[in-house]
Design a protein that fits this description.
Length: 571
């Protein structure tokens, strides 16, 4: 049988040994041609045929481009560094070993984490993201945001060198201005921000907040979901009941001091952060309310039942809003009312809770069936079924934003006593066992410790329209309270000449505090607010912002931008 008739046979096929001999023959010819050429023409030292160059250990076959028709053997030879020149006792320099890699495919260096963060953020900002609310037009003020921010990242085309390396005199002056509630008014634009002592002192003043308890080796905010961060840290009180009682006694004194300051309108607001929920106390005159208010989120049915047993009157604003919206809907008809009442194949809307009523009221609620003459055709549910249905709907809102609880007026004092005496306020097991809740305040109080937000400036490159440009950023880390956010924006407005942007990271359980409570008092004007809250420690412009009714709903500001001294934002 002829070899040409064998399937798959190729006349040009050679066995591997023959192929290697052919390669060595070609290599000898090329070396001979290089050796015979003059040095100026070849531009490199001649290569001895017998000398076997050692393979570059720093090179990689993947970094060299592979030409069509070449084999791996040829690539390994191409990547070998040249041997020392004839007549020269010294070997090739070390940088020549890396030359093939740097010429063919440069090694990409890993950038610092700051640059990666900024590049990622800028990429996100240039993507079209669907947001629930975008300001329709630029405004001179952004709405109040009552959520606690964990991180702020300001970006601008102007450097933030004025926020770096504050002098000892400037730090001391900033602390004194905060403790004495000194009002700082900056011009609209500062020509040399780095040389402005007034700006640097005001920046130090805006970073101050007060905390209790103060345990430097523990991160006391956020408390919800912080078990992993606290696990493994020294907690000597976890197994010592006497020490736990001392900590709780000291904590009771501190929260009582805060409430007294709030009632006297010397403190605008404060937060109580537990391992399960957060409480926001606000003074009368803030958020459009003429009385003291307290909001709790998220809550559970057990907590609400305990508050009822203590005689605390409260409301569920989001549940009531959902019920009102459903009742006012024109699509509701008689058939839907019957099906919802008897719960035939339907379930109540998530987040909705029926109004509390007695058993007699539940029985009378079906009297309208007798008037229609269909009482015999419809099976009337018993009292137990009605009770089980209520409990089901009450549990459905647990741990959700819809479980927001609002306490108003004198009931906030009853709530204070409830928090002090509530044993479930402190975890009994886990890393947070025996640790009292965290108190955050914008002003000093008994037992409070002055803390500082961490600030640092970062210079990096960001991608803008398929190119990288220099961008300056200022990062603020820590529990950023609402007044600090507004104070920082006022400083940046002057220092950055009315042009900057910011990415805001929210502690999600506190975003629901931006819900409109529908308790606005028409008689509550600016004159009344400034008259009642003159020494609460806030700047007048910040006080004006926080006195407005919340408009963000269950969300918070995620992105804030200022252009030509006008704000736009996304929530």
């Amino acid at each position: 049988m002829a070899t040409s008739a064998i399937p798959g046979y190729s006349p040009g096929f050679k066995k591997p040994p023959a192929t290697l001999r052919l390669k060595r023959k070609r290599l000898r010819r090329s070396d001979h041609a290089v050796a015979s050429a003059p040095p100026a023409a070849c531009g490199a030292a001649p290569r001895a045929p017998s000398a076997l160059a050692r393979r570059n250990p720093f090179s990689s076959l993947d970094n060299a481009p592979r030409a069509a028709g070449t084999t791996r053997t040829r690539e390994r030879q191409d990547l070998r560094p040249p041997p020392p020149a004839q007549g020269s006792p010294s070997a090739a320099p070390f940088w020549q070993l890396l030359e093939p890699v740097s010429e063919d495919k440069p090694v990409r260096r890993e950038e610092p984490s700051e640059r990666i963060d900024i590049r990622t953020l800028t990429d996100e900002l240039h993507l079209p993201v669907a947001v629930p609310e975008v300001s329709s037009s630029p405004r001179h003020e952004f709405p109040a945001d009552w959520s606690i921010k964990t991180r702020l990242l300001f970006m601008s085309s102007q450097p933030f060198t004025w926020a770096e390396h504050l002098k000892a005199q400037e730090e001391a002056q900033g602390f004194a201005q905060h403790c004495r509630a000194i009002e700082t008014n900056l011009p609209q634009s500062i020509q040399e921000p780095k040389l402005s002592t007034e700006l640097r002192c005001a920046f130090q003043q805006s970073l101050v907040y007060w905390l209790h308890p103060s345990l430097p080796w523990l991160q006391l905010f956020p408390r919800i979901g912080a078990d992993r961060k606290i696990a493994g840290k020294a907690c000597p009180w976890s197994q010592d009941e006497a020490l736990q009682q001392v900590l709780m006694s000291d904590w009771s004194v501190s929260i009582t001091s805060l409430y007294n300051l709030l009632k006297a309108k010397l403190c605008p607001y404060f937060y109580v952060c537990t391992y399960q929920f957060t409480v926001l106390f606000r003074a009368a005159g803030l958020a459009g309310s003429d009385v003291i208010t307290a909001e709790i989120s998220p809550t559970t049915r057990g907590l609400r039942e305990a508050m009822k047993n203590e005689g605390i009157e409260f409301s569920l604003p989001l549940v009531e809003e959902s019920r009102t919206r459903k009742q006012n809907s024109p699509e509701v008809n008689l058939e839907a009312e019957v099906s919802n009442s008897l719960e035939v194949g339907n379930s109540m809307e998530v987040g909705e809770e029926p109004a509390p009523s007695d058993d007699d009221d539940d029985e009378e609620s079906f009297s309208w069936l007798e008037e229609m003459g269909v009482q015999d055709k419809v099976k009337k549910p018993d009292v137990l079924s009605i009770k089980l249905r209520k409990e089901k709907h009450e549990v459905q809102v647990d741990h959700r934003p819809e479980s927001l609880v609002l306490v108003r007026g004198t009931n906030t004092f009853t709530l204070l006593n409830f928090l002090i005496n509530c044993k479930s306020l402190v975890a009994v097991a886990g890393p947070q066992a025996g640790l009292p809740p965290t108190l955050l305040s914008p002003v000093a109080f008994r037992g409070g410790t002055m803390q500082m937000l961490k600030a640092r400036s970062i210079n990096a490159k960001a991608r803008v329209h398929l190119a990288y440009e220099n961008i300056f950023s200022l990062e603020i880390v820590g529990p950023v309270l609402p007044h600090s956010l507004h104070s920082l924006t006022m400083l940046l407005k002057s220092a950055q000449r009315g042009a900057f942007s910011a990415v805001l990271y929210t502690h999600e359980p506190t975003a629901v505090f931006n819900t409109n409570l529908n308790n606005a008092n028409p008689a509550l004007n600016k004159e009344t607010i400034h008259k009642d809250l003159p020494t609460c420690g806030l700047h007048p412009k910040t006080l004006d912002q926080l006195s407005q009714c919340p408009t963000l709903g269950k969300s918070s500001i995620r992105f804030l931008e200022m252009k030509d001294y006008a704000y736009t934002w996304k929530s």
